[in-house]
Specification:
Order of helices and strands: HEHHHEH
Radius of gyration: 15 Å
Number of helices: 5
Structural class: mainly alpha
Strand content: under 5%
Helix content: over 70%
Oligomer: single chain
Shape: globular
Strand order of the largest sheet: 1-2
């Protein structure tokens, strides 16, 4: 349930970020609303899978440089995960594109912040807690 909540929060964050940033392109604007929602959901699922599978490996490999930069390199890792998700989604015929690396970096910051706020307010990213 936690993964599904995280995907929903990421999808909303992706949608809001695409509305804000002119350098981020998400889905086809001329498509019907249902197609746009399904596209955003599929891309959010791809982002979630990339963050669940590849991000921990890359973070472990980049631990020395992350320590050296006092954790700021995690922003670069977040950007790379977003670009990788965009590449994977383009292979599947979905649109998640950025004009430059810097737009992807800014989008990663905004998406991370919005997803954290959404998960915190709604409790979507929380798993079942033990009762005691």
């Amino acid at each position: 349930m936690r993964f599904l909540g995280s995907v929903i929060a990421t999808g909303v964050a992706l949608w809001v970020t695409a509305l804000i940033l002119p350098g981020m392109h998400l889905g086809d604007d001329s498509a019907p609303v249902l197609n746009q929602v399904l596209t955003i959901g599929a891309i959010a699922l791809i982002v979630g899978l990339v963050n669940a599978i590849i991000r921990p490996i890359l973070s472990a490999l980049a631990m020395p440089i992350t320590c050296l930069t006092l954790g700021l390199f995690q922003i670069v890792i977040n950007t790379l995960m977003l670009l990788l998700a965009g590449w994977i989604s383009s292979l599947l015929g979905l649109t998640l594109e950025f004009d430059t690396f810097w737009w992807a970096l800014l989008a990663g910051l905004i998406i991370g912040l919005l997803a954290a706020i959404i998960e915190g307010v709604t409790g979507l990213g929380e798993g079942q807690r033990e009762r005691g």
